[in-house]
Amino acid sequence: MTQPMDLDAYFKRIGYDGPREASLDVLKALHRRHTTTIPFENLTPLLGARVELDLDSLQAKLVGQRRGGYCFEQNALFMAVLEALGFQITGLAARVRWMAPPDAPLGARSHMLLKVDLADGLWLADVGFGGHILAEPIRLVAGVDQTIPASTLRLDEVGDGALMLCTLLPTGWQDVYRFDLVPQLPADYATSNWFTSTHPDSIFVNALLAERLTPEARYSLFNHKLTTRWADGRTEQRTLTDADDLAQVLDQAFNLSPPAPAETIWAKLSEE
User: Fold this and answer.
1) DSSP, res 247
2) Closest CA to 21 of 30, 32, 33, 12
3) What is d(CA 211, CA 199) in angstroms, rounded to the nearest whole number?
4) Cα separation of 113 and 127, whole Å?
5) Can you give the pTM of this predicted structure?
6) Which sequence spans correspond to the domains of the chain?
7) What is the pLDDT of residue 1?
8) Catalytic residue among 111, 175, 232, 245
9) CB 81 within 8 A of CB 7
10) What is the predicted pLDDT for the residue at 98?
11) Cα–Cα distance between 159 and 143 in angstroms, integer?
12) Is there a catalytic annotation at residue 166?
């Protein structure tokens, strides 16, 4: 039998000791603490293990261990937390457009995000987009630039009731993902999760991705390349040199204890 959401353990994990009510202030505070503490990472599918989405497994991994996960894990856990606090939540799905050529065909609904109904309107919450983690939720309102820590975002109407989340980069506006407000069922996420975590062409099977957003910096890891975007606007990039370097980066930059020795992960990245 699935155990209920252990809010005490979750709050201890993210270092939160504030109010436990379904308010905008609480939503923002939990969103910030979650993304600061629990990193985006795909070590489970990269190492060929099964990604489980039941609440027991999510709590054991993301709360009970010093681990993170990717969108289906992160947002499913966050949804359970918010529901336990009395928030009205709807799970949605998106087609990722991050760094895709403008003329690239639309892909599958491979990303999970959340709609939160509050007294003052609808909000988009997403603690699991590893290409550009959002520090806080944004209003589900189209055509308005919204500035949150480390991001300026906008929702554009793109037809057929769909919205495009866009973020402002130094090079201009960049599409992030396209979604609509059709509620998703657990079976929808199970299907998408199985595909993204097992298909031989999935990026999550073939590359190491990790991201963590702190007040000081946004840390992004793609295979051997670490990018640090500091809050003051500086950007630093470097290439990891060996397994010891990887282990140190996972520990210090990503607050992450990997499920396998760094040497095993490094060898996986070196496979042709």
Assistant:
1) H
2) 30
3) 22
4) 8
5) 0.96
6) 202-269
7) 54
8) 111
9) yes
10) 87
11) 13
12) no
**What secondary structure does DSSP assign to 109-132, as a single string?**
EEEEEEEEEETTEEEEE-S--TTS
Q: Confirm whether 188 is a catalytic residue.
A: no
Q: Please report the pLDDT score of residue 172 as a whole number.
A: 94
- pLDDT at residue 103 in the model: 81
Q: Name the 3-class secondary structure at 10.
A: helix
Question: Is position 126 annotated as part of the catalytic site?
Answer: yes
CATH superfamily of 202-269: Arylamine N-acetyltransferase (3.30.2140.10)
Instruction: Return the pLDDT at 100.
Output: 82
Q: Report strand pairing: 109-118 vs 121-125.
A: antiparallel
Would you say 174 and 167 are in contact if contact means Cβ atoms under 8 Å apart? Answer: yes
Q: What is the CA radius of gyration of the chain?
A: 18
Beta-carbon contacts of residue 159 (< 8 Å; ≥ 6 apart): none
DSSP per-residue string spanning 137-181: -EES-TT--EEETTEEEEEEEEETTEEEEEEEETTEEEEEEEE--
The single residue of 31, 71, 132, 166 carrying the catalytic annotation is: 71
Task: Provide the pLDDT for residue 2.
Answer: 65
- The DSSP code for 209 is E
Looking at residue 106, what DSSP letter applies? P
Residue stretches of the chain with pLDDT short of 50 = none
Q: Which of 34, 126, 132, 166 is catalytic?
A: 126
Q: What are phi and psi of 178, to 5 degrees?
A: -110, 135
